[in-house]
Amino acid sequence: MPDKLVDLSEKVTIPRVLFIYGSPRRGGNTDILTDRLAEGAESKGALVERLIVTKHTIRSCTGCEGCSKKGTCVLDDAMQGLYPLIERAHRMVVGSPVYFYGVTAQLKALVDRCQVYWRGNIFSMSPLDESWMAWREKVMWSLWPHLRETGYSRGVVLTLKALFDALNFQYGESMLLRGLDAKGAVLRQPRLLEEAYELGCRVAEEE
Fold first, then answer.
1. Using an 8 Å Cβ cutoff, are 201 and 91 in contact?
2. Vertex 52, ends 49 and 56: CA angle to 5°?
3. Residue 2, in any domain of the structure
4. pLDDT tens, 176-204?
């Protein structure tokens, strides 16, 4: 179970970066690259948290409109423990392979369950003060899928841009890769690993 929300009485001095691992294939290229990004962020002093989607059972959004009435998602599952991770993140990195022009099914379930934020109820009803929200809205979100051809990423980019918009975050850099179908193929590409590390550094430093 995640910790409680960050203590808003304390001044934020370092960014809390949430890394979301969206691939169902553990230890593959997505995980390897996400780890490198996280290492880069940690090297700059960021507080890194990891959310491995496949470790949690997340039900699909049912479109019940319960969040419109209560201000919270009414489905009782793992997402109730993941919402605090999302809400306390100052910056975020989302990693996903491209499956049929989109994110993985497991990651899409998490994205869909953020409908509650699109409704605009959670933030207005939660104890987040204005100064923290103002800082939150200025920080960078970063997305990188990996794919065979760049055009295949369009669905992923649009999906996550919609998520970021619902959460009042800016859409940051993308790391779009091709030719990484075989598990661990990125380990033979040291330049890409270095690029991922450098991007992680920028995630921690960007204002």
1. no
2. 120
3. no
4. 777 777 888 888 888 989 999 998 998 88
